[in-house]
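Before a computer can learn anything about folding, someone has to put a protein's shape into writing. The three-dimensional part falls to structure tokens, numbers that each stand for a local backbone shape. The protein below has been through that process, and both of its lines are reproduced in full.
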Amino acid sequence: MITNNLYKRLLDNLKTGVVLLDSKLRLLYLNIAAESLLGISNRKANQLFIGDVFINAAEDIGEMQTALNNNASFTKRKVQLHLMHGKRMSVDYTVTPFEENGQQRALLELDSLEHSNRLDREESLNSTHATTRELVRGLAHEIKNPLGGIRGAAQLLARELNSDELKDYTNVIIEEADRLHNLVDRLVGSRKLPNMQATNVHEVLERVRSLVAAEISGNSIQLTRDYDPSIPAVVADSEQLIQAMLNIVRNAMQSLSSPSIEHQLGKIHLRTRIVRNATIAGKFYRLAVCIKVIDNGPGIPAEIIDTIFYPMISGRANGTGLGLSITHAIINQHKGMIEVESRPGATCFTVLLPVLG
């Protein structure tokens, strides 16, 4: 026998927001996705008029009431809704009237366009990264073989030379061959399996903070933090996570050295929060850890922000474009997600890591 609890579990595992309305458009039930979208719990929403949730939405509310009166389903695309907490969202929604025990009801389904677009971007980025990684690994093999030959020939030549001046040239060849070899290794990335164990993200961030403290000393850069002490441990490789977050913070530090800075004090802010009912890489998690790295630098150029996590993409003339690509690979390996929002004076990298178990 199928129970009401099973129905509720099924609804709560949907990524679509589902709202049950009565004949007067009062909220009777919200699934978890709807709670997340609307920013209100099922308990607090009970018996609220939908006009108290969707602000200044008389046209949409009128169409919902008409659908109920006519017992006719309808769908509306790309609607901007203003919520009771000041938040705005873009959605497609469908209203489906039905009758239960002689009472008129309506099912309101909400599909977040922002959520759909984010999933599409994430899927596209992961696919591109996978293709690029295989291409780079193939190229790495073809590059490292002749590099080894060049380095070996330079070493042999150095042994035959009596002139220290000429040996300076062979040393340059050897050093540049080593530099290119290391660059290729960084492009390919580590093949070492992560050592996954319970990890405190604040210990990771404090390690990052201690590593960069000396680098920002005397550079008019202030590093602040705002941690949520209630955050549980995540399953992660702490060393890899330190590397990922260090790359983001160093990226912020380098942006604050830009000549286009219009303020006297650079600021980097580390913030942690718990997120409930998060969808990461198309998978639903009841809890996730959200880490934000915010800086007041000049921002990421608009022409590269969509490709900032690709290898060899950098906003600096002397940048390798590897740091954020490596960070993306590490976060992806931890079943997490990384996003960036940027405008002049405010760049925010957001990392979401699922809390498993």
Notes: The domain at 4-112 is CATH 3.30.450.20 (Beta-Lactamase).
